[in-house]
Amino acid sequence: MSVQPISLAVLREKYAKGGESAAADIFRRVAKALASVEKDPFFWEGQFLEVLEGGFIPAGRIMSAAGTDISATLINCFVQPVGDSVSEPDADGKPGIYVALREAAETMRRGGGVGYDFSRIRPKGAKVKGTASSASGPVSYMRVFDRSCETVESAGARRGAQMGVLRCDHPDIEDFIRAKDQPGELSNFNISVAVTDAFVRAVEQDAPWELVHRAEPGAAQIASGARRREDGLWVYRTVRARDLWELIMRSTYDHAEPGVLFLDRANADNNLGYCEVFEATNPCAEEWLPDYGCCCLGSIDLTRFVVRPFSAEVRFEFDRFAGLVGKAVRMLDNVLDLTYWPLEAQRAEAMAKRRIGLGFTGLGDALVMLGLKYDTQAARDFAAEVARRMRDAAYSASVDLAREKEPFPLFEAEKFLASGFAARLPEDLRRSIRECGLRNSHLLAIAPTGTISLAFADNVSNGIEPPYAWTYTRRKREADGSVREYQVEDHAYRLYRERGGDVANLPPHWVTALEISALDHMRMLEAVQPFIDTGISKTVNVPADYPFEAFKDLYLEAWRCGLKGLATYRPNPVTGAVLEAPAPAAAPGFDQSDPDRRLRLERVPEPTLASLRWRRRPRPSAGNPAWCYMVDHPWGSFAVFVGHLSDGTPFEVWVNGAEQPRGLGALAKSLSMDMRSNDRGWLKTKLESLMRASGDDGFDLPFPPDGEPVRVPSLVAGFARLVHYRCAELGAFSAIGKTPVLDALMSPKEPKTGPDGTLSWTVDVFNPATQDDFVMGLKELVLPNGQRRPYSVWLSGEYPRVLDGLCKSLSYDMRVVDPAWIGAKLRQLLDFPEPRGDFLAWVPGEGRKINYPSTVAYLARLMIHRYALLGILDEEGYPMEDMGIVTYEADNVVPLRARSAGAMEVRPGRRCGECGNYAVVLRDGCEFCTACGALGGCG
């Protein structure tokens, strides 16, 4: 396929040097540079070039700087120590805080990101003997590091990334967890809590948890109960473990930070547990590293090994993949000898252990090409087999390198083979390692691959992730200050279309990140992690309404599964607007793969065109007749009007009168659109449903034509019965004909849950002008394509009971498979007025209030917002994709707004340097602007 323009633009901006203009130019430069340290550079240059052309993509620093005259490191990230001293080494030899700051600045200046454990810094208020003062605590010093990072520009014109870690037993842990609550605070840091096994067990047992440090507390803290333990540590405070866990989880739920790192699990699995200790990770958290340890990274594009994709004969070439793995290991090992080291301590650490991190990218796309759905056991089995083959080939290649070039200096065979990870290696590999040694202490890491996948692999899915979107538009600022729009397409999507696939109707196994349950995201990690000796960068995306209790349990489940850490991203709705429902249990028809389960439909109808006859009310030049009927209800008298054309076609209904019940006018307005549809069967079904609506306002309705009293179960039922009578009298139901809307119902009746219920999106509504005070809830289900859709709306509390009829009608509209239908219904209610019923309320998704003309109008706005959060409608109520059900025969209307497949919701976040919008979020371990599509700040 031809190169995507966006791929070429990113390649030239971030990686090309001198006269380079294409990937082939960069491959030649990098292959020559990495071969230069070999005894036979000419031979290995050709070999390395084949590897690069065959799908191996070294990390961004290697691709941008190898073979240039820039004094920049080829290493993406480091971990560096910070001691409990201002300038001198502390008791354990860790550098003083400002020495560590200087080392970090030098590292970032040369292009590397840095992770730190700040746990050694004494707590706020602790005694400082040398100056007879009180300590300010680790968070205060993190702000100093943050400002330094902001000031120092990394090689390649990007800001350095940082990871700040604090142990779960540090006395300042609560301040650390809240450190990024305020916008702009520690904006150059990712932060994570280092969680121990003892702490998780204390959470499970609801036990007390001691916050401790070796530094002596201040006098005030001792007076408040601080004490010294037998092991010499000072207990500053004791808290309830579950309360601290709740604080961590609440912050992560609301702000996607702090992350959670399982400290003991990482150390237990460390190949070098006999000579090093992990305390922190690199900024994207895929590598636990010791002091001055480095990430020497590269990824293999899995899609390059899928033969005959999208066909019945499709297969993955494991042997060819394993062959490429061996040569990629050699290339990364050479990086350690070629690179510029910002600090001598980094060089010494790397030479002693020769740690590298080979991984893969494009897993999500490879699965699609193989016909496997990401959230299935078959997909997890495949991914685990890929990881196993990669492990075996990488360790075998490192054995061969040890024979040729010697093992890493700190290699001790028996101690190494007794470690947690090495103990799981196949026996033949263990035998080879015992006999010949190993060139590299660690070999594997799955990192985020945002810009390198875009620039060098046609935008294959990132790392281990499923695709985030099949296509989207990116607005990129050019060098001259202008803005250009690029269409960004997923590699598998492009390839499928190129081979004749129908991208408008993608097969069911084509699922994106937001269509996969949180547990199934985590299960992929669980399947692959046993074969990766360091870690995996993966973001578990959860929807905005994901229940907090299920979210909290997700992290506990990750610990129980033996993972080394977990990162999640949850969109943050307007504070206080969304309430969480309890997680349901299984019932017939439920998706049981996730606590976040909804009803699941097995199939939906095909769209049918031309469902609306008119978009708006027709306006005959000579006017139109209308039938009027007076209703005397115990709550007031009002008139019902049904308007029709001269040929007898009914097209609208409305109510009039000072005593008309609140909400009935909104129902009439909504029914008018049903009357203007090209589907009399739909109108008849809708009215018959409303005629059965019950309530506490039943009455005897004098019914036309002779006024004989008929008992109706509610005012809504009586109103619907009158409209049905008049439409039947006009002959609307005498010849039903085609029923395009009725045929497009996802389910003719509202799907029912089992006794344990289903989750819903709920919002509190209060109109002080009318004293309406209630909760609106939207029940949701999952379609066969994985899309979540609302299918029913209900109210509970104090409100006009006539609104139950409106909800019943709108629930029918929600079940029309084309969301353009419910979008049109809700848009027509956005300006529905009510005398003295207007009120000030929050704009969903924004931190401001505006005046709404009525409670009904506000309900319509909230419902549209929910559809927008799910990526179905935009915030104006228009569909993100045009399915074709809602088309018009007349009125010369502007077509519905078109959206590309996989179009994304703009989410609030950090400011984007390219478009200026505050819309930068973490996507698959990389910074991603949901407004313009800019990608950056990842591996």
Automatic annotation (TrEMBL):
Keyword tags: Cobalamin, Cobalt, Deoxyribonucleotide synthesis, Disulfide bond, DNA synthesis, Nucleotide-binding, Oxidoreductase
GO MF assignments: ribonucleoside-diphosphate reductase activity, thioredoxin disulfide as acceptor
Protein's UniProt name: Vitamin B12-dependent ribonucleotide reductase
InterPro entries reported for this sequence: RdRp_reductase_class-2, RNR_lg_C, RNR_lsu_N, RNR_NrdJ/NrdZ
Catalytic activity: a 2'-deoxyribonucleoside 5'-diphosphate + [thioredoxin]-disulfide + H2O = a ribonucleoside 5'-diphosphate + [thioredoxin]-dithiol
Cited PANTHER family: RIBONUCLEOSIDE-DIPHOSPHATE REDUCTASE, VITAMIN B12-DEPENDENT RIBONUCLEOTIDE REDUCTASE
Domain of life, per lineage: Bacteria
Protein source organism: Candidatus Methylocalor cossyra
Family of the protein in this entry: Belongs to the ribonucleoside diphosphate reductase class-2 family.
